[in-house]
Batch of 4 targets.
Target 1
Amino acid sequence: MEIFEIVTYFVLLALLSTAIRVVTTSNVIHAAISLVFTLALTAILFLMLSTEFVALVLVLVYIGAVIVLFLFGIMITRAPLGKNAELDNDKNKKLGAAIAGSIFLLFSYILINGFDGDVTITSGSSTELLGEILLSRFVFPFELVSFVLLAALIGGITLARKDEALIDEDQV
Amino acid sequence: MTEVLVKVGFLAIAALNGAIIFTIMDVKGASWMQRRPGPLHVGLRGFIFPLAEILKFVQKEDIIPTEVDRPVFKWAPAYVMVSCVALFAVVPMSPTLVVADLELGVFFALAISSLGTIGVLTAGWSSANKYSLMGGLRAAGQLIAYELPLILAVVGVVIQAETMSLVGIVEKQIEWGVPFVVGGQIVGFLIFMVAATAEMMRVPFDMPIGESELTMGFMTEYSGIRFLIFYISEYMNMFILCAIASTLFLGGYHVPLLPTEWVNFYGPVVLLTKTAILGFILVAIRWSQPRFREDQLQNLAWKILIPASLVNILVTAVMKVGF
C-alpha cells in the first residue's frame, strides 16, 4: 500500500506542475499541450482509483475530442509561433486567484465531509455499477445534461450558419 | 516487474514487425500492380527493402529548421507512435496470448487511437510552414469526422456481444458459430473499414498528405528518424486497425469448423491471415483509386457514414431485444 501512496503523490505533484503551466505559459498551443498532460495525469489518478471507465472517458472525450477541437480552433483562426503578449492578463489575476481558491475550499469541504477522509477502492470493475446508477438514480440529471448539450449544439449551428437574408443586410 | 518488461518488449516487437510486414506488402503490391522492378527483384526478391529503408532514414541527418517551435516539433511524432503501439496491447492472438485482456478493451482501443490526432495537429503547427499547417488542419478535420463513425460502428458489435472485452467478443463469435460480419454486422464492418482507412490517412483519404498540392502535409519539415517514426506509425496503424477489424467482425483468432481446443496453436496464424487479407484489400485500393476531394470526404463522413452507423445501432438494438 505504501508504494501506491508514493506513486499517488508523484502523480499529484506532476499534475499540479502541468496545471500551473497551463495558466502561466504565454503560448496558446503550449497551454493546450500542457492541458493534455494534465488530463492524462487525471486519467491516471482515476485509473488508480480503479474507475477505468471514467479514466478512458477522460482520454476519449477530453484529450481526443475537446483538446483536438481547441487546437483546431486556435490553428484555423490565428496561431502565432512564440510568445503571445495578449495572454498575459494581469488585470484579472486577483479575481482568478480568488475564484480558484474558493472553488478549492468548496471542493475540499464537500469531499472531506462527504467521505470522512477515507476513500474506499473497490476491487474489480465499477463500469457496470456506474452504468446502472447513471440510468436509474441519476437519470434526471443525465437527461438534463444531454438537453444542455443539445441546446449548445443548436446554438453553435445558429452562430456558424450564414443566413442568406442576413448576409444581404450586412452588405447593405 | 519482469512480466511487465516482457510485455512491453513483446509490444514493441509486435508493433515493429506488424509495420514491417505491411510495408513489404504495400511496396510489393505497388510494384506488382505498377511494374516497378525495385521491390520485386532487387535483394532477396525485394524482401530486403524495408531494412534498406530503415537504414536510409536512420543515417540521414535529422534536420530541425530554425523557425520551428522546438519542443513541440520534436515531440509530435511521439504522440502518434504511442497511440499506435498501445493499441497492440488489447488485440488477442489467442485466448491467452494477449498483453492485457481489459474488460473495456474496445473502449480502450478507441480512446487511445484518438491520441494520434494531437501529434498530427501539433506537428503541422510547430513546423512554421504553411503547407504543414494546411496538412495538419486537413488531417484534424478528417480524423475528427471519421472517429465518430468508427466508434459508432463498434457500438453495434458491443451490443451484439454484450461485452467490451476483445477476447469476450471473439468468444461470443465462437459461441454463435459465425463471425459477426455474417451474423448481422455487415454494415458495421463496411463503415468500420471505410472510417479506419480514413483514420490511417491512406488513399483514397490521403488529403492531409496530398503529395502534389501539399508536398507532404504535416510531415513536410520532418526528416531522418522523426520522419521514419511517422512513416512506421502509418503502417503500424494500418496493421493494428486491420487486426482490430478482424477481431471485432471476422471472428478474430478462430474460424468456424476448426476445433476450439487447439485455438492456442492456430490462433495467431488465423488472426495474422485475416489481418493480411484486409491489409491486401487496402493496398489494392491504394494503388488503384484516385483521392477524394476535401468536401466529398467531409460529406461522406457526416452525411452518409454517421447516419448509417446510427441506423445500424438502432437495428442491432431492436434485434437484440426482439430475439
Target 2
Amino acid sequence: MSSPSQLSGRDVLRQSVRGQRRDVALGSLLGSGHQLGEAMVPVLIGLVIDRAVSGSDTGSLVSWLVVLAVGYVGLALSWRHSAWCAERAAAQAEHTLRISLVRRVLAPGGGAEEGRLPGALANIATEDAKRVGAVNLAATAGVSALAGVVVSAVVLLRMSVTLGLVVLLGTPVLLWLGHLLSKPLEERSEAEQERAAHASAVAADLVTGLRVLKGIGGESTALARYRTTSRDSLRATLKAARAQAFQSGMVLALTGCLIAAVALVGGRLAAQGDISLGQLVSAVGLALFLLGPLEVLAWVNAELAQGRASATRIAEVLAAPPAVTPGTATLTEPVRGAVRLTGVTLGGLRDLDLDIAPGELLGVVATDPAHATDLLRCLARRSDPEAGTVELDGVPLRDLDPAELRTALLVAEHDADLFEGTVRSNVTAAAPDTSDPEAAMTAAGVTQVAQTLPDGEDTAVSEAGRSLSGGQRQRVALARALAAERPVLVVHDPTTAVDAVTEAGIATGVREIRKGRTTVLVTNSPALLSVTDRVVLLEDGRVTDTATHVELIHRHETYRAAVLS
Amino acid sequence: MSDLELPFSTRELLPTATPRRTRAAVGELVRPRRGLAVGAFAVMVAATAIGLLVQPLLGRMVDLVADHRPPDELTLPAVLLVLVAVAQGGTTALGLPLVSRLGETVLAQLRERFVERALQLPLEQVEKAGSGDLNARVTRDVSVVGEAVRGALPELARSLLAIVLTFAALAALDWRFLLAALLAVPVQAGTARWYVRNAVPLYAEQRIAMGAQQQQLLDTISGAGTVRAFRLEEPHTESVTQRSSTAVALTMRGVRLVLGFYNRLHIAEYTGLAAVLVTGFLLVRADSVSIGTATAAALYFHSLFGPINQALALLDDAQSATAALARLVGVADVPVPESAPPAPTAQHREPGTVTVTGVHHEYVPGRPVLRDVHLTLAAGERVALVGPSGAGKTTLAKLIAGVHRPTSGTVHLTGASTTADSLQVALVTQETHVFAGPLADDLRLARADASDEALRKALTEVDALDWVSALPEGLDTVVGEGGHRLTAAQVQQLALARLVLADPPVAVLDEATAEAGSTGARLLEKAADRAIEDRTALVVAHRLTQAADADRIVVMDGGRIVESGTHDELCAAAGTYASLWQAWSGTRTTAEKPPTRPSTGTTTTMKDH
C-alpha cells in the first residue's frame, strides 16, 4: 500500500477491486458460464429446427428439448450467482470506501474538509464511493461479456469461416458506427439533460425558501421565473429526446442491415450445402446475441472511466495533508488547567500574551469577531500559531496529540452542531459515565427547554438540530459542553439567541458548575461577563486591558462600546 | 421561533389524489393534445409492425433454402430486410420524439401547476404538514415522474407495442403458435405481481435507508469540527458504519429480489420457447406450416424475451411514478385560497396601522398560546416585543404577518401600497434562505422590475453594497446552493435588502438579527433599523439594546401583554421589563441607556447618513 500522501486514484481503484477479489473472480467465472448458455440458446433453436422439426423426428425433439432445459437451468443458476457475487462486491467495496473516507474526515489532525463543502464531501462518500464500488460490477460483467464474445466466435468460425468473419467483423463495425453517429448527439443531449434537470432544482430551491419568499411577497415573481425555467427545460428536453430517438432509429436500422447481410451470406452458404439449415438459423441468432456482450463491453469502458474519475476524487480526500500533526508529549494527570499563550501570532492575533490561571473563570471580549475566532482556533489546535506558543500545564500544544489535548481542553464553538438523537442524548454525548447530566442541563437552561418540547428531554433532534429554535439549540449545545466535564472549557458566544432572563440564569449556572475548573467565556454579553473573575479586552489582536467586568465598564470607553451598545 | 411549533403527532400531510382523480387529471392534461397522442401512437404502431416483417422474411429465406431454390432468389428477401430495417429505424426516429413531446409537455404543465399551488399554499397548511412533505414532493416526486416520462414511458410504450404486435404476428403465422406462446403468460403475470408486491415496499425502505445514511454523513461531516472537539469520532464512525451497513443489506435484498424475478422469467422463457418449438414440430409434421414458418415463430418468440423483460422490469418504476404523480396532483388540486381584498393604492406608500383586537390563539386545542391580546401599532410606530421564550412573541408576530389566522379575535391592517397587489406586511425571521442564482435575481424576487440602481440603493441601506461590490461578479455573482457562500450576517443583510425593495407599509422582524453572533448582531441591528425606517414595524428582540431604542416596548409573558411603554417609562415602573433590563445590562442602574445612543423616547435613532 502506498503512503497516504501519494495515494492516487489508480491505487484506490486497485485496492477496491483487490479487497473483493474472491467475489469478483467467482462472479466472472459464473458470468462467463451464463454468457455461454445465452449464446447456446439460438444455437439450440437452430439444432431443434434442423434435427427435429425438418426431419419430423420425435425422439430427437424430446432429447433436444431436454438439452435446452438443462442449458436454461445452467444459465439461470450461473447468472444468478454471478450477479449476486458482483453486486455484493460492489456494495462491500462502496461501504469500505465510505467508512475510510469518514475516518479520514474525522481524524484528529483534520485537514480533509479544507476547501470542500460538507455537501460535496458527503457526495464523495456516497456517489463517488458508489462509482468506484461499481467498478467491481463492471469488471465482472466485462470478463463475462468477453467470454460470450469468444464462445460465439468459436461456434461461428467452426460452422463456416466466411460466415463467422461476417458476424465477427460486422457486429463491432455496427456498434462502432452507431457510437460514431451518436457521439456528437450524446454530448449535446448530455448538456441539454443537465438543463432539463435545472427546472427541478429551481423548484426545490423556491420551496425550501417558501417562508422567506412569502415574507416578502415574492410568490408571483418566483412563479413567473419558474415558468420560464420550466419552458426552457422543456425545450431542452425535447431537443435531447429528438437526438436520442435519432440514435435509437439509427441503431435499429444498422442492426437490421447486419441481419440481412448475415442471412444473405448464410443463406447462400446453406443453398450451396456448405452449412445446414439449422446452422443458418443459429448464425442469425448469434449475430443478434453478440450485440449484447459487445454493448456490455462499451458500458464497462464508460463505467471504468467514471470509476477512475471518482477514485481520483476519493484519493484526494484520503491523501489530504492534516491541518496539525500530532506530537509525542503527554499531559500529566490530573490536568490543572493552566493555559498560557506567549507571543502568539495567527490570523488577526499579533504577538498575543495571555495567562489563564487554573480554576479561573475568564471573560474574553474581542472588538473584532475575527480575532475571537483566531484565538479559539489555536486553543482548539485546529491550526498551530504562525509564531509563539500555546501551553497547557506547561506543555506546548504543538507537542501533544490533538486527540489527547481535546480530552483535557474543550473549545465549544458558537455554531456547534447538534446531532441526530434526542435532547438528552445530545447533552450526554461526550459526558463521562460518572457525571450527572441533570446538573449541566439545569445550568444551561435545558430543563426549561425540555418543558416546552413535546417529549421533554426525549424529544427527537433532527436535521443537525434545526428542528429546535436557535435559542433551544444553543442551550442544548452549552449543556453538552458542560456535561463533558473537561478540565479546561472555552465557550464562544453561547447565548446570542437566548432571551435576557434565561441568559442571566445561565450565567450563574455556568459559574456554579465550573467552579474550580478553568473556564473561558469568549463573548460580548454583559450578562455572562458579569459573572467572570476577570475579563481581558482584545483589541487589534492583543490584550489591551484586563480587570473585572465592573471595573472595565467604568474605566474603558472601548469596552463599554463593545459590550453595551 | 419554533418553541411553539407543532408536536409531530398533530401533523396533517398535504393531500394525495385518489387513483381515479390522478387518471382524470392526466386525462385533462392530455385531452387538448389528442391529435398529438393519436399521431404518436400511430407512428409507433407502424414502426413496431414494420419490425415484425423481419422474422417472416428470414423464414422465407429458410424455406427457399429448404426447397433447394437457386441461391440468387435469396437476394430479394435480403434486400427487403434492408428496406424493413431502414423503414423501422426511420419510423422509430420519428415516433419516439412524438411520445416524448406528449409526455414532456404534460409533465411541464403539471409541474408548473404544482409549483404554482405550492407557492400559494397557506404557510399554516405547509407547517402543519411539516416542511419536509412539500420539499419531498417538489424534489423527489417531480423527478421520479420526470424520469419515468423521460425513460420508462417511451421504453414501456415500445415494449408493450412489440409484445402485443408480436403476439398478433404469431397468430397470423398460425393461431396455434399464439396459444403455445401464451403458455408463458401466467408465469410472467404471476412473476410481475410478485415482484411489484415485494419491490415497492422494499424500494421505499431502501430510499429511507439511503436518506438516513445521507443525513448521517452530512451530520457527521458538516459537524466534523464538533465531533473532534468532543472526541466523538468513534461513536460517529460507528453510526455511519451502521447506517451504511443497513443500506448495503437493503441493496442486497433488492438484488436478491431482482435475481428471483429474472429467475422466474427464465422459467417462463423456457416454457414458451419449448411450447412454440413443439407446436412447430407438430405443425410441420402435419404439413400445416412450412419449416420457414416454424423458424419465424421460434424467432418471434425468442425476440419477445427483450421487450417482456424490459416491460416487467419497468413495472416498479411505473408503480412509484404513479404514486408520485398522485402526490403531485394532490397538491395541484388544492383550491386556491381566496385572495385578500386589494389594498388601497396611493401615489406614495404610507406607513400602515395595525390593530389587534381581543386575539386568542391556540395551535393545539386547549393549549392557548395567546390570550386576549389587544395591540395597536400607529402609522410609522416602531414597537419592540420582548419577553421570555414561550411568551407568545413569535405567534403574535406571525398573526400580524398573516401566516396564521387567530383562533378568535381580529388583526386589522390599514395602509397604502403603491400598487394594488403589492405586499402589505413583510416578515423577516431568523430563518434565512439565499435563492440559488445571481444575487440580483435573489433581490428582484422582492420587486421584479427593480433597476440595478434600485438594487444598489437597497444594498446601501443595509450596509451590504461594499461586500456585494467586492464579490467576483458583483450583483451577478451566483449565490445560494452551489454558488458563492455567504456568511450568516450577509444572508440576513440580503433578507433586509429584500424588505427594503418590497417596500411594505408594515414590517415584522422576528429575531432577524439573532444568528449572527454578538458583534455581527449589532451591525445587523443597524441595518434593520434603516430597513424599517418610515414603516410601521413590530420587532421581536432578544437583545434589549434593540428594544430600548423602539418607540414603544411591549412585554409579553404567558401569552399576554403584561407591560407597554417607552424604555424610560418601563424602567421607572420597576416591573418585568425593568428587571429584564437589569439582568441584561448586568451592572447598570435602572434607566441608563446604552452609551452610543441618544436617550430620547422618540423615533430618533442614530443615523450614519
Target 3
Amino acid sequence: MAHYDFQMPISEAQARQLCVNDTVSLNGTLFGIRDATYIHLFDRGRKTHFDLQGAAVIHTAPNVRKVAVSVEHPSGYEPICIGTTTSARMERFTRPLMEQYGVRITIGKGGLFAASQEAFKVLGGVYLAVVGGAAALETTWIEQIEAVDLDDLNPESLWKFRVRSFGPLLVTMDSHGGNLYTEVNEAAQEKRASVLRALGVK
Amino acid sequence: MELDYLQVEEAAKTLYIRALKLLPPDIKEGFKRLNALESHPTGKTILGTMIRNIQVAEDNTNLLCQDTGIPIYNVVVGQGIQWDGFALKAAIVKGCERATREHPLRSSVVHPITRKNEHTSCGPGIPVIHVDFSDAVHHFSIEMIPKGSGSESNSWLKMALPAEGVDVIKTFVIDCVLEAGGKTCPPTIVGVGVGGTADLCMHLSKVAATRALGTKCRDSEGARLEQELSAVVNQLGVGPQGLGGDSTAFAVHVELAATHITLNPVAVNMQCHSARRARATLSPDGFVYGY
C-alpha cells in the first residue's frame, strides 16, 4: 500500500504501477465528465478540443456561479460545490475514452464493471474512488475552473479543473485485474445465507 | 389562520438551500454510532471523511453534496388552516425555482425525453409535492427533501405472492442491499415499503427511507420487521461506499399499508449517507426552521 503524488498528465507506466489499496493525490489538471458528456462524445459524434492524453477524469457535474471572465475565473465560472456521482451508469464509455482520447485515470464512486476492468488491463488505466457525498470537502481541493467545453450540456459540460492535492483517492480497480468492489461483493454474497438464517428465513 | 403565499414561497426557497447544507442531528448521531462500531480500516477512514465533510459544509456554508437531487416537498395542513391548494403548490414551485436561480444551485432536473434542463430544478410534475392533513388545528408545516440520484437509481419493486409470506420480504431487502453495493453511497437508510398497491408500496419505501433515525414504524408488526432487519443488515460487510466494513446502513425502516388478498408487494428505496431534510413549521411569528 503505497501513496503517490501525481502531477497530471501521467504515463502508461505510472498508471500500471498502481495497485488496489494504494492511494493517490492529483495535482494539475482534472477533467469533469458525466452521462450527457459521454453520450454526446461517443453516441452523437461530437469532439472536444481538450487534450486528454494521460489525463484523469472525474464523474461529476458541479454547482457553479456564472461570473465575468478574469484571471481568477478564466472560464467565466466560479466553483460552488463540486462532488462525485455514481460511476456505474457510465460503464460502456470507459474503453472509448481511453482508446480515442488516451485517458489513464477514471475517478468516481461505487466502481465500474468487467468491460472497464478489461480496458484498464489492456490499455493501462485505473479507477480511483473518491468518497461520494463529501463534496464540500472535495471542493476545497479544486483551485479553479480553467476552461469548459460542450457547455450547451451545462451542468454536464466537459469541465477542466485545476486541482491541488486532490485526494487521497483509493485505487479500487487496477491494471492487474485487482478489483476491491468484486472482493467486497463476493465476501458479502458469502454472508447472505447466514444473514437470512438469522432472520429466520426458511 | 390563513396562509400567506409569499411566506410559503420564501420558505420553499429557504428550505431547499438549508436542506442541502445542514445535516439533521439524528443523522449526525447515526454517524457517531457507526463510527464507534466500525472495525474495518477502509470503512473507518471513509466514515472519517464523511464526518469531516459535514463540518466543512457548515464552516464554509457550502452544500454537503453536489447532487441537489429531485426536490420533494411534504406539506401537512391542520384543520384550522384556511388555504387555497392551487396557490400553495404554485408558491412552492416558485420558491424552488428561486432557490435554484438565486443561490445558485445546480439544476439536476431535465425533461425525461428531450433531456432539456430548464435550470430551475422544476419541470413537469417536479418538484414532487405531497399534501397530508393533521387534526392539530393550527398546524402547517413543509418538509423539504432533496433526493439524490445515486440512491434513487437503486429502487426496486416486487409483486410477490401471498404464499411467499414475510420470508420473501426479508430476502428481497437483503438482496437489494447486496445489489446496491457501493452505488447508493452507503451507509444508507434502507427504506422498505410493504403492502398497498404497486405505486403506494413504492411511495411507502420512500417515506421509510427519508424518516428520521430513531423513529419507529407506527404499526407494531412493521416495527418488529424493521428491528429484525436493522439488527442483521450490517453483518453483510458491504461497508461505507461499498468498500468493506460494518457500516452498510444506519437502519432499515419499514412503512406499511393494507393490501389485496392476492398481493404481497415489497419495495425498497434507499437514502444515501447525505440524508438531507429540512422542515419549516408555521408559528404566529412566521416560519420556524428545523428538521
Target 4
Amino acid sequence: MTNAAETSTRAAQASAEVRAIHRRMLRRQRLGRAMTYLLGILLSLWVLIPIVFITSMALTTPAAVRSYPKSVFPFLPFSTATMEFFLNSRGVLPGITNSIIVAVITLVLSTLIAAPAGYAISRFIFRGRDVFRLSILAVRAFPVVVLSIPLAVVFLRLNIYDNLFSLAMMHTALALPTTILVLSSVFASIPYELEEAAQVFGCSPAQAFRHIVLPLVLPGIAAAAIFTFVLSWNEVFAASILAPLHNRTLPVQVLITLDESSEPYQFAGGFFMLIPALIFIFFIRRYLFNMWGQITK
Amino acid sequence: MSAPSSPKRRRKRNWAPYLLILPSIVYLALFFAYPMVNGLILSVREAGALLTLHGEAQQLSLPTGQLPRGAQVSILDQQGNLISQDELDQANLVTEIWFQTRGQDSTGETLEGWAPGTRIRVRETNESGAPVSGTVRPRIGSDDPLTFIYAEPNDNSEIVGSLEVQTPVEILDQVTLEVWFLVRAEVEEQTEEGWVQSRYLQVFGDGTQGRVSRGDTGQFTTRYFQQMVNDRFFVPALRTTLLLMVIIIPIQFVLAITMALVIQANPKGSGLFLYLFTIGLGVSDLAVGIVWYSIFTQLGYLNSILQGLGLIDSPITYLSATKQYWILIAIILAEVWRATSIVMVIVVAGMQAISREVLEAAEIFGAGFWQRVRYVILPLLRPSLQVALILRTILAFQVFAVVVVLGGGDIVTVLANETYRQYYDLRNVNVAAAYSVFILLLSMFTAVFYLRAVRTQEEVGG
C-alpha cells in the first residue's frame, strides 16, 4: 500500500517534471515559431514594399506621380492614365512586340537544343558526362558582358546586326546552360523503369519516350521555357549592344530613352517589366530548386 | 539521378548520348568559345595597323619601314604586280592590265611578249568578251613612236623588242596587275621610303601625293588596354565595382541564409514566403533600378515618408553628383533586393540535401538553434555556399542597368557600364573588348581564388 502510494507520488512527480520539460519545450518551440514568422514577415515586407510602391506609381494619374509628398495609401487616385501614357509613347509598343518575339524564339530554340542534352545527362552514363556538366556550369557563370562586344563585331560582319533573330540566338546561348540543367533534373525525376516497362510491353524507345516520358515531363519543360522567357525579357546588356537601332526590345527602349523621359514613363516602364516576374515566378518556383539542387551534387 | 539500369547500355559504347549533346556543344562553342577568342583578338590586335613598306614591289621583299595610318606620302614611282582573282574587290585598288601579244616588228620578225594595256587598242573580242586582237596605240605626249614589248607583264623585265604604232597584234592572254607605289614620307623626322600596294593608299591630285588609308598587319598591341587603364572612368569604375561587391555579397548571404532558415522551418504559409523570396530571380536589373529610383528620387517615397513622420521639412536630393554615397546606398539596396533570391535558392537547395536525422541528432544532444546553425548547417552547406559565392561574385562584375538608372551613368560608374559606353557612345570597339576581357580575367581570377581558398582551408583543417 505504502509502496503503491510512493510509486504513485513518484510517478506524479515524474510526470510533473516531464510536463514541465514538455511545457518548456513547447514554449521554446512556440518562441521559435514566432521568431520564424516574425523574420518571414519582415523579409516579406522587405520584398513587397518596393513592389507596392512601384505598382501604386504605375496605377495612378501622372499628376499624382509628380505630386509631393506622396500619399501613404497606395493606388489613390486609381487610374490607368500613367500606364496608357507609357504604352502610347513612341517605341514602346514595338519594343514590347520585339521583346516577345525575341523571347519566344529564344525559348523555342533553347528547348529544342537543351532537351536532348538534358535527356542524355539524366539517362546515360557516358565518358565525358561530368566534363560536359561542369563546362555547362562554367558557361552558366560566364559574363554576358564578355560575349556581347565580339558578337556584335561578328554580327556586323555577317550583316545580321541589329536583328531580332540574331539577338534571340545570343539569348539562347545565355539560357542554354540553365535550361539543360533544369531539363536534366526534370528527366531524372521520371524513373527509367517506366520507360523500360513500356519497352517490355512492345514500345520502341522513341514510342516509350513519346507516350510515357513526354507527358510526364511537359510541366517541367514548360517551367524551363517560362524561365527562359523571363530571362530573355529581362536581358538588357546584350540587347542594347546587339540591337540598339531599329529593333530595340522593351528594356533597351526604356534604357536608351531614360535620360529624356519623365518619371511617370519610367515608373510605368519599370512596373511593366516587373509583371512577368511576378506572374511567372509563381508558377515555376518549385522547379527553381530542382535546377540549383543539381549544382552542388 | 537515375542511372541507367540496363547492363546492355554499359557494355558496348553507346553513341546516343553524344548525338544528343552534340547540338548544345556546337551551339555553346559557337556562342561562347568563338566570341571569347574573338574578343581577345579584338582587344590586343592593332586595328588601325601600321603599313609595312617593302624594298621591292613584292610582298616577299624585305620590309624597309612602317607608316602609321593617315601618314602623308609622296609617290615617286609605280609598278604593277600580280594579284590573285579574289583580292580584286579590295577598296582603293589601282590596277593595270597587261596583254600578251604577238605581232611583226619593223624588220618583219614575229615578236611575242607582254605590253601594258594602255599601249594596245583592243579591236576584236571573242564571245566571252576576252580580247583577241588589237593595234598598237601611240604614246600620248611623247614622240617616241615605238612601244616596248616585255618578256614578262612587268616593265622591269627584259625588253624583247619594240613595235611601231598601228601594228596589228594578236592578243593571246591578259593579266590584271595591282599597282605598287614607291612612296616617301617623313615620320617623326625620319624619312621612310619603300613600296606599298595601292590598296593601302588614297591617291589624290595628279598622282604624286597620297595618304595611308589603312594598315596591312594586325600586330599585337597593348594600346587598347593602355587606353582603357588611362581612361578617366576606369579607376572609379573598378573601385565602385569592387566596393559594391564587397558590401553587397555579405549582406546577401546573411539575408539569404535567414530566408532559407525561415523556409526550412516550414511554417504555415511557407509557400507564400517562398514565392515572395524568389521574386527577385525574375526581376531585371533595369526594372529594379527604376523601382528603387521611385523611392530615392527627390519627390519619391523615402522623402514622403520622412516628411510624413516630421523628420525633414523639405525633400532631400539623394541621387546627385555631390552625394555619391547615397547613390551607392541606393544601388546596394537595389542589388540586395533583387539578387539575394538566387543565393537563397541555392542555399535552400543545399539545405534540403541535409538529412533530417543529422539535425535531430544535434537537437537531442542539446545543441541550441545557434549551435545547430553554426556547427551543423553551415559546414554542411559549404559546397552550396561556395557555388553561390562564385556565381554572385561573377554576376557582381556585370552590374549594369541598376547603376545607369540610379547613378546616371557617369556620376557612379561600373566596369560593365564602361564597356557599354566605349561601345555605344564612343564607338570604340577595341577598348570595349579590352574592358570585356578585363572583366573575364577578373571573374576567372576570383573563381579560381575561391576554389583554392576553400581547398587550402580544408587541408589545413585536416
